[in-house]
Amino acid sequence: MSRYCSQCGKSRKACICQWIVPLANEVELIILQHMSEEHRPLGTARILNLSLNHCTCLIGEDFSDSEALNALLEDDAYQHFILYPSEQSSCLSTLSADESASVKKIRLILLDGTWKKAYKMWQLSTNLHAIPTVKLPENLQGHYTIRKAPSENSLSTVEAGYHALSLVEPDKDFEPLLTAFKKMIEFQIAQMPPGVFEKNYLKGE
Questions:
Q1: Entry pTM
Q2: Of the N and C termini of the chain, which has fewer Cβ atoms inside 10 Å?
């Protein structure tokens, strides 16, 4: 028997499948995952991929020639947006209102990787450059307490997906995404020797 769960990819001891709740989302997510994140034990994109019925995860760095991604982008039935903060990005809360009357369905692209890697993915993947960018409200705070982030409002991929879907589909409850995320973190903290979490992750608090 494999030491790893065939569904979530984590070790059987750290399996998160018990906390996964199937969720029906109308706005489809496309996760472009940097290859260094694919087998990372603390990665959160798999929570989205396992939970949502409309979610696609593609792995790589330069997606310019990705047949799978380009086929999705060429589908005229969808309007595509990238969750990527820039000076030109519109707030996602305005998108939910502006696009509500659109006849096209919405696909939202998320970049899964560190800020440095996400920026490189964006720079290399020229097929993304013409797609409108959107951003989340700036007052959101991340709770990825076991992975160091550049700022307090840095969000994990699952948190970004949760907030994005909650904004564009306000009538649906996506809280189970955060529940699975919190349970994963609690398990990892419980595996640490006494004092390690407090010493390395609670500095300044």
A1: 0.86
A2: N
